[in-house]
Amino acid sequence: MAYSDRSYARPYIGVPGLPRAIKWLIIINVAVYLAQFFSPWPRLIEHYFALTPAAVATPPFLVWQLVTYMFLHGGTWHILLNMLYLWMFGSELETTWGTRRFLQFYFFTGIGAGLCVLVLNYIFHQEHSHTIGASGAIFGILLAWAVLWPDRIILFAFIFPMKVKYFVMIFGALAFMNSFNVNSGVSEFAHLGGMAFAYIFLKAPRRGRMRGRSDPFGSMRESYKAWKLARAKKKFQVYLKKQGKGPWVN
Question: Average of pLDDT values for 169-187?
Fold first, then answer.
């Protein structure tokens, strides 16, 4: 059940607060952007900390780029819009879920978006391109809103009232259509990857979430355990047949 189906859910997005994780994410992003802006070696920062698929998948294996690329931005408008969306939509997620689970979600979607960039850029022969920005995680946050509060009203372009689910559909459709233009300068693979990994996170087994944990790969582990149990049972039945005791029936 989406949160907005409940009688006490607000029909409109209000002015959010500033919970702890959101506050520190904004502070760190702004601090890193200022360091980029004033650094005498901006290309060196980009070389080591922007997401470059070839640098991650081949020597020197700079795997930390799957995290650090999220904190670099390409201009004032880039970081301003990302931090605005992080504050507008992320604050209520953190308030609802708690700081720990929100951070798990944020980095799961951001790193997942980076993995999508890595794989798809190799497929399209763009493995030496650089990707920066928190947009993958931001698109994940938008997807979470569309799932949890689909009928909340947002002012599209700060003018037109629109339900969140349609707002996110428009963003997702634009990202998908623009993904065919690999020379656009915008990493739509990161946007779509962030949404995909957000959906995986939200559909994780409820048992892990009820204990205060998020386990996106829980169902895979459960399937593997079931397979191992079935294999062991089959081997035991074969052993019993050889001993002349017949199979067990369960």
Answer: 72
